[in-house]
Write a structure and sequence with these properties.
The complex is a heterodimer of chains A (about 110) and B (about 110).
Chain A (H helix, E strand, L loop, with lengths): L3 E4 L2 E4 L5 E7 L5 E8 L3 E10 L2 E4 L6 E7 L2 E6 L8 E8 L9 E2 L3 E5 L1
Parallel strand pairs in A: 2-11
Antiparallel strand pairs in A: 1-3, 3-8, 4-5, 4-9, 5-6, 7-8, 9-10, 9-11
Chain B lengths: L3 E4 L2 E5 L4 E7 L7 E6 L6 E6 L5 E4 L2 E6 L4 E6 L8 E7 L8 E2 L3 E6 L1
Parallel strand pairs in B: 2-11
Antiparallel strand pairs in B: 1-3, 3-8, 4-5, 4-9, 6-7, 7-8, 9-10, 9-11
Classes of the chains: A mainly beta (about 110), B mainly beta (about 110).
Chain lengths: ~110, ~110
């Protein structure tokens, strides 16, 4: 998976608790993304980063925040988890050296909010 | 609103048959159309991609057909094999921003 590690791989939490998911890459890629995957909805972009401390919102950013203090790490935080945030979360990266680059995905984090 | 619509949601094909997955898009600014393949428990991986300057691209048993006027593109898997059983996502972006918009996914099962 192109040196992309997501942690944890599985998490069960309760409504109202904060949750942080981590994405770590060893490829020195400039761009990093957080997607959520839900049946029938495909992959939807939550937030992305185009450099250290440079982030922007995606299609479904409400209820999520991100931070990138180092090139290799991109954190996704659910400030107060809700049942609608039960999903599989994928981190992706791309080099950022040209157009039409492919995305490299991690193996995902299965999050269940009870 | 879903800018890339994918069909069918699920598909069952016999070994050796042809699998066909269709996608339609709305944004005429899109100029890059990749397909990603995802096996259970794994992240998606790029399978094949096309730019709108060509109507077809073939890589082995996988072919993308592109119809710019109809704003549609499709993935054909020839001689489908059980190992092709996976979820397939079409996607689209405009290369300047390279923000991919994904379709809803198709779960393909190839029966032996």
């Amino acid at each position: 998976d192109a040196g992309i590690t997501q942690s944890p791989r599985h998490k069960v939490t309760e409504t109202g608790t904060p949750v942080t998911l981590r994405c770590h890459q060893t490829e020195n890629h400039r761009y990093m993304y957080w997607y959520r995957q839900d049946p029938g909805h495909g992959l939807r972009l939550i937030h992305y980063s185009y450099g250290v401390k440079d982030t922007d919102k995606g299609e479904v950013s409400d209820g999520y925040s991100v931070s990138r203090s180092k090139t290799e790490d991109f954190l996704l935080t659910l400030e107060s988890a809700t049942s609608s945030q039960t999903s599989v979360y994928f981190c992706a990266t791309r080099p950022g050296t040209g157009l039409y680059e492919k995305l490299f995905f991690g193996s995902g984090t299965q999050l269940s909010v009870l | 609103q879903q800018q890339v619509k994918q069909s069918p949601q699920s598909l069952i094909v016999q070994k050796g048959g042809i699998s066909i997955i269709n996608c339609a898009y709305e944004n005429t600014a899109f100029d890059y159309f990749p397909w990603y393949q995802q096996f259970p428990g794994k992240g998606p991986a790029l399978l094949i991609a096309i730019r709108p300057d060509v109507s077809e691209k073939k890589e082995g048993r996988f072919t993308i057909s592109f119809n710019k006027s109809a704003k549609q593109f499709s993935l054909h898997i020839m001689d489908s094999q059980p190992g092709d059983s996976a979820t397939y996502f079409c996607a689209a972006s405009n290369g300047a921003g390279n923000m991919l918009t994904f379709g809803g996914g198709t779960r393909l099962m190839v029966k032996p």
